[in-house]
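Changelog excerpt

This revision adds worked examples to the README so contributors can see how folded entries look when concatenated. The first example is reproduced verbatim below.
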Amino acid sequence: MSTIDEIIVKTKQKDNYFEIIRAICIICVMLIHCQNGIEYEDSPLFSFNYDYWLIFRQFVNFPVAVFVFLTAYFTNITKVEQKPLKYYGSRVRRLVIPFLVWSILYSIINIAKGGFNVDVTKIIFNIVTGQASTPLYYIVVLIQLVIITPLLIKCLRNKYLNLVALCITPTFLIIMYAYTYITKDQIPFYATVFPGWFLFYYIGLHVKLNGFKSRKKDGAGSKNVSKALIIMGCALLFSIIECYGMLYLKFPVGFASSQVKISSFLYSFSLINLIFAVKGNKIITKVNFVTRIGNYSYGIFYVHCFWILIVSKGMSYIPSIHNILPVYQLIELSAILVLSMLSIIVTNKIIGNKLASKYLGF
């Protein structure tokens, strides 16, 4: 049994492996927020875009789960237990301040788009629930999980509380499926409340405390990766099958394509298993474009939706580009990624890294 932390201590060089993982995750987040395929469902000529989108979504339905896991995995357990106020203070600075700044900025954009009709109650509600912009619910989830982190560490050290904790997300999923089967609608804010993502955070803390179990025999590394790939492939196939099964049962397409469903969770866990199987004892110190994306991932998370608004508006003037969704998404993703990174670089140059990080997450 070993932990990545023990490996990192043995080297003075920074390990960029997890920056690569963050880069992959944030790219998938942007892909999820790019043009979707729902509008093509009834298209007489381009309905293939709908099926492409449904299947492709299953491939990229893991980033939030992995981000939640990594947040827990890189939690400073000593600080949580010995200096909880300092821990909460650091989390407030990192999460709450940029979240509020961007929520206000996106609220202003929403007001402008809505003809400057101001409903203060609705604006406040949308900010609190992370609805000022599509991805901000994720920060609301993290804030909830950060608040209960000291309690979760105690649960991990008590076998009875541990069993109760492990049942939270499965119970939530059962309720979600039952509600949707009966009503043919989704539970409001199902992705915004912490139980849906709880298990990934909890397992992340578990791996932080106890390490990731892996075989250390000669040649075991490649076998572990092969097994992890097979498991991930099976989970992905199950995700595609469940997606179409849910549509057959008249579940909402938003649920069938969602990251919050049984098969997507199994797929995400299989990917986390693959991440650690590939990691092994290797240290990646090389800095390249991909690792820079990982370094900028938190800032990209906040700013990319702004550029989606601009880029999608610009692309609406290009004839026929909507007819082939994969091409549209690739162009949209490339533009959003480049513009988001340039925004971060320019902002850091103008106001400095410290202020950009504190207020904008850059």
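The second example, added in the same revision:
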Amino acid sequence: MSASEPGESKSLNIEFGPSSTPFDFDKRKKVDGFVTIVNEDVKLHQRKDPKSVTHYGIYVKCEIPGTPPDQEDITPLAGVLTDTLTENTAETIHMTYLLRSTKVVVDSLGCENNPSIPSRPPA
């Protein structure tokens, strides 16, 4: 979803793909922003970019059918939501959008380990 005004572009984006970092990325190096462990298969990650746009990220241990052992740890599913379109939207709402979208993607991929994706972020 996007909107434009003269000289300004705004959008709400949700993207998914293979992570370029392993599931335990936060244990291996210092992380920008902060990480919330949701359960053994799901982590949330929030950080701000240099333009002060918050990136709401999710990492899911999703064992894709036909992949090598430990794929879900080495190359987890990653998703990110960025929003410059809506203003004054609460973090909880952004994370809820991301979690619900993740559930659809996980169900579509048929993750063999059946990761538990909550419908709302932890309190």
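Reviewer comment on example two: The CA atoms of residues 61 and 72 lie 5 Å apart. The helical segments are 25-28, 71-74, 91-109.
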